[in-house]
Amino acid sequence: MHIHVVGVSGTGMGALAGLLAELGHEVSGSDVSFDPPIGPALQSWGVRCLLGYEARHLEPAPDLVVIGNVCRRDNAEARAAIDQGLRYTHIAGALAEFALPGSSSLVVAGTHGKTTTTSMAAWLLETAGFGPGFLIGGVPKNFGRSFRAPGREPARAQTGPARRARPFVLEGDEYDTAFFEKTAKFLHYGAEVAVITSIEYDHIDIYPSFELYLEAFRAFVATVPGHGLIVANSSDAHVAALVSENARAPVAWYGLEGDPVRGGPPGWLCAPGEVSGAATAFDLYVGGDAAGRWLLPATGRHNLANATAAIAAVVQGYGAPLGALRAGLGQFAGVRRRQDLLGNPGGVLVYDDFAHHPTAVRETLRALRQRHPGAKILCVFEPRSATACRQLHQQDYPPSFKDADEVLLAPLGRSGLPPDEQLDLDALCGDLERRGTPAHRFTSIERIVDAIAARAAPGDVVALLSNGAFGGIHAKVLNRLAPQDAGQTLTNENGASS
Fold this sequence. Notes:
Elements: E1 2-6, H1 11-22, E2 26-31, H2 38-44, E3 48-51, E4 64-67, H3 76-83, E5 88-89, H4 91-98, E6 104-109, H5 114-127, E7 133-135, E8 147-148, E9 167-172, E10 176-178, E11 181-184, E12 191-196, H6 210-223, E13 229-233, H7 237-246, E14 251-256, E15 268-276, E16 279-286, E17 289-296, H8 301-318, H9 326-330, E18 340-343, E19 349-353, H10 358-371, E20 377-381, H11 397-400, E21 406-409, H12 425-434, E22 439-441, H13 445-455, E23 461-465, H14 473-481
Parallel strand pairs: 1-2, 1-4, 2-3, 4-5, 6-9, 6-12, 7-9, 12-13, 13-14, 14-15, 19-23, 20-21, 20-23, 21-22
Antiparallel strand pairs: 7-8, 10-11, 15-16, 16-17, 18-19
Helix pairs in contact: 1-4, 5-8, 6-7, 13-14
């Protein structure tokens, strides 16, 4: 088929386009820009890229038009596709038609940890011989790209009670599907095995109230069939309540030693051990029995929870032999833009992370503090998402920066919000100062780069936190901190210059 993707440069839509091309379709796509890394990646996957949104991009008429949720109802191409009577769908509809038939969907949902847990689950299934397909909202470094078509040959023999088709692993986004389909994406994936990591109010632009946000997860829990499995975080109060009240499927509770138990007793329990550099040891207990000492090449309690959830999903959900996973987890290389070390120009360690919700900011900085206990951490934060730019979490942000030694605040990433709804950056600076953390707000990326260059010294950590491109700050910081005689500019794996 000829499939045209409108809004193809987004992380999810770009991965979908690559997946469709890998499945043998002729794929074209349009967007307002094709900047690195997504633009060159799309071309390497065989996707024909068309700049801008114009009705003529639909000539000759494609067999199917996939409309991304970045598109509004007045988008010229989306409007033309609908008005001309072309067959059209959204990302979930395309997956349901081309990728999910004959597969068993493992869907990872939750406010936090989706990308990392999905990547871990896909990698563990891979190392156990299951050859999963996947679509992930980030780039798992073990695979080098965020998608893979489901295999057609039989998967390895499964053990235990689970007898399922070959797994297809999906990051289950609660964001709406398209302007013509306002329900959450994860409701369309037919989850047979579901992971729910956490529930905290987010996406205020889609869910005007927390109750509506909870309702999306409530509906997701109810979609998992009785022969399926729900892997649920027992320490999260909202997860515990929704799963306990609405699950039709059996529930595998997981947790970390020392965390409160609000759901069922954790049948999958992680006891954190020592941190050594960029790795954390832990003891795993399954059904109360010791399952040995494991090593995770990451820091942070949140990542230990993610790993425990992924192990539970692939073992209890798909019958993967537990003993086959220990080496695989030790080889997990992480995900781009998740505590991603971009470089150490001039001896300064520069990290990139997608953190934007207060909880994500807190856990990311806590993990970096574990990894670099004696370093000065300079945190650079861009409030960019619809939720982060609003006052919803005004009181939650100050304590989330506890592990930073200094905070540099970028301008709000969204304009046009009423002043009384905007996150008050001056107030945030004042609250941080009263907590003993020096804080400054800046009017431009260039001024932030100047401030970093003036403050950072060898051995320091610079943490760049944003859920967007952050105005290209990553390359600017790397170049500015690099010794002047370092030679020609290089390009790192994220497409940033260094």
